[in-house]
Write a structure and sequence with these properties.
Layout lengths: L12 H6 L4 H10 L21 H7 L9 H9 L2 H7 L1 H8 L8 E4 L8 E5 L5 E5 L6 E4 H18 L4 H22 L4 H6 L4 H6 L3 H18 L1 H8 E4 L2 E4 L6 E2 L11 H11 L4 H7 L3 E8 L10 E7 L5 E9 L5 H4 L7 H12 L8 E5 L2 E7 L14 H22 L2 H8 L4 H29 L12
Antiparallel strand pairs: 1-4, 2-3, 5-6, 7-8, 8-9, 9-10, 10-12, 11-12
Helix pairs in contact: 2-18, 4-5, 5-7, 5-19, 7-8, 7-17, 7-19, 8-17, 8-18, 8-19
């Protein structure tokens, strides 16, 4: 069996450890890892006595963020145990670091909860399903992503009022699909695997008729909402001879020192660097557009408080292009899995997208501004996000299959699917262990959410609440 080295720098430790081995040898090497890390050792969760208070970790994750937006982040996180889970990636990273690990690294998402999966358009305008939020991506143990994803299904099921049996089934389905998909990917040729994508239309075709009709209707609606020409009248308005971004408080607004139409120099400088990170053909495409306006955009739950802008570009015919500039900070996994090999965290994120997704946005690139790194991509380019809050048991179980398969494909692209498959095996031992962990960790998350809610009620943590739409 080859030596499994713990390396923080490489993006594909699993690959390096098995170079030159046949698939059968890789499978055997993975199977042998059960001796040092039994599959059932992943079951359960008990917080160590040295665990930092949950509220302290929430506040620690906010270091360097825009202070005026932090009460909004707290308000979004405290709304439910599920929204807390979405914003507590650093908390779980610290917890995962003390759980058993095989030592096999892949390119990890770092925040693989079920809301960070969805459909998006490839440059060929196909809609594929994959992980679509990789702010925290970094090479790390593959089990960390699996545990965060499976636990997110338990937390989401509880949030939707589903019983414990339904939550357990969703977690089991997710991990079983991951295991079975990884076994399939382990038998594929390398290029065949890298060419593989998960087209949404094909996945929807396997759904029961009534559910299929609902999903197709939603898909068409979201596709229309996310096209640039459809977003244009909703996000922009004409002022004199130019189009400017509309202020839509509290989520989109102009910087107080830079009125609409005035682009701060640091942002213009950042785009000079960004252009150079694009392929030359895409640089030519980008050059057809002219920057008209920039506004601050508040995004997500965990990302609230990071620097983020939406930028409006147009051609001479007011043909729009919306780009999102998002701050890239050190991954929450970094202190536990090792520093990134990239000097720019924007480049780290972009590299993660290209490793983990079968296709990526052609405007995906990175840049650097004063004291901050950034990555850039199109804003909502036919992005289809799941309405998890509406899911019943049937929808949750089907979605668990989709996410389990998508995560397996992303991990297989950068790691050794045969070795990971050899470790998990053909039985449900690993599935049951992760489901047990997920149930126990959902209880931990509920306690952590309660601690934040108490801190908000007592005034220790300030929160601002939005009106629910």
């Amino acid at each position: 069996m080859p030596t499994i080295r713990r390396r923080s720098a490489g993006a594909s430790t699993g690959r390096r450890a098995v170079q030159g081995l046949t698939r059968a040898q890789q499978y055997s090497a993975g199977k042998a890892l059960r001796e040092k890390c039994p599959r059932d050792s992943h079951a359960g969760w008990k917080a160590p006595s040295t665990r930092a208070p949950a509220v302290d970790l929430v506040l620690e994750a906010e270091t360097g963020r825009m202070p005026e937006l932090l009460p909004l982040r707290h308000g979004r996180m405290v709304r439910s145990a599920f929204t807390f889970y979405r914003g507590a990636a650093l908390t779980m990273a610290a917890d995962l670091a003390v759980t058993p690990s095989t030592g096999i690294k892949v390119q990890c998402c770092g925040d693989s909860h079920l809301c960070n999966f969805g459909g998006f358009a490839t440059p060929e305008r196909r809609i594929i399903f994959a992980i679509n939020d990789l702010d925290e991506t970094l090479p790390a143990p593959w089990e960390w992503d699996v545990k965060r994803l499976a636990a997110s299904f338990v937390v989401a099921c509880q949030d939707n009022g589903l019983n414990n049996a339904a939550a357990k089934d969703a977690a089991l389905t997710c991990v079983r699909t991951y295991r079975e998909s990884m076994a399939e990917f382990g038998q594929m040729k390398t290029l065949e695997l890298w060419y593989l994508a998960l087209p949404v239309e094909e996945m929807v075709a396997s759904l029961p008729l009534k559910l299929r009709e609902r999903v197709l209707k939603r898909l068409e609606k979201e596709k229309a909402k996310s096209r640039g020409e459809e977003m244009f009248p909703k996000l922009a308005e004409r002022k004199g001879d130019v189009h400017l971004i509309k202020d839509q408080l509290p989520t989109i607004f102009h910087h107080e020192d830079h009125p609409p139409g005035e682009i701060q120099q640091s942002l213009r400088d950042a785009f000079a660097t960004y252009r150079g990170t694009l392929a030359s053909s895409y640089q030519s495409l980008f050059d057809r557009y002219h920057l008209q306006d920039a506004a601050i955009k508040v995004v997500g739950v965990g990302s609230v408080g990071t620097a983020c802008w939406v930028l409006l570009f147009t051609t001479g015919d007011a043909d729009p292009l919306f780009l999102q500039v998002k701050e890239a900070r050190a991954s929450v996994l970094e202190r536990y899995a090792g520093k990134s090999v990239f000097p720019n965290h924007g480049q780290r994120v972009v590299d993660g997208y290209r490793r983990m997704q079968s296709a990526s946005d052609m405007f995906l690139g990175w840049s650097h501004g004063p004291k901050r790194d950034y990555f850039i991509r199109q804003l909502r380019d036919i992005k289809v996000s799941p309405m998890v809050e509406t899911f019943g048991q049937t929808e949750m179980d089907l979605y668990a299959k989709w996410c389990g398969r998508a995560l397996a494909l992303s991990h297989a692209r950068s790691g050794s699917p045969s070795m990971i498959s050899g470790y998990m095996g053909k039985s449900d031992v690993f599935d049951k262990a992760i489901a047990s962990f997920s149930r126990a960790y959902a209880d931990q998350n509920e306690q952590d959410h309660a601690a934040l809610a108490h801190a908000v009620r007592t005034g220790k943590v300030k929160a601002v609440f939005e009106k629910e739409s």
